[in-house]
Design brief:
The chain is built from 6 helices and 10 strands; from the N terminus they run H-H-E-H-E-H-E-E-E-E-H-E-E-H-E-E. By secondary structure, the chain is of the alpha+beta class. Helix 1 runs antiparallel to helix 2. The longest helix has 14 residues. The chain is globular and about 55 Å long. The structure holds iron/sulfur cluster (SF4) (2 copies). The site of one iron/sulfur cluster (SF4) has 11 residues, from loops.
Length: about 190
Amino acid sequence: MAEMSFAEMDMMAKYYGDRNLLDNEFFWLDCLVNYRDRAVILPVADCPATRRMLHSLLKCTSGECGACCHYGRVDLSNDDIKRLSPRKPNISIDEKGCYLDCSQGCQFLKDGACSVYDDRPDICYEFPFQAPIDSVLPDGSRVKRAVYRLKCKPALDVIRAAFRYAMTSNSLLLPDLNIVQIKEVSIEKINA
Ligand code: SF4
Ligand code: SF4
């Protein structure tokens, strides 16, 4: 296991050995506090169907939060720039490419809502999904696993649903949000 952060050590001390973390409300509330903004590797394969399924579970009420519009940078693709150009965006550039500097809040965030919602950058459209990560299954096969950012309570609920889907009766969820022995990782239907 990789070196643990203080937050993870605290979670381990508190919850290690609990065989039913999935249903432990205190555990999930502690996850939100201790792991907020962390990219969580989900125990499901990354594919368009998985993304659609998980995205449909995200109960994010438009115009009532915008907490994910304060990241330091929102990277822009050429297509993003083309779509946004009529809005005259203030685009920053560095060696990694073009981006919106959102460290003080995105220039398009108005009253807690995105004012360019239909033309927003792909990265915003996908959020809280992050770039998938390569993983090796117990049988040696490789799979890309979905990665989800634990930004908010709605994101936490999606993460929890994914873990509930993936865990078999003899799986064990660890307090660092890993599970021992995962179910096969293609996803058909998740009931939150
Ligand atoms: S995804 Fe989460 S952080 Fe972003 S606006 Fe929705 S509730 Fe807020
Ligand atoms: S473009 Fe819209 S969704 Fe993306 S960071 Fe800015 S306000 Fe938020």
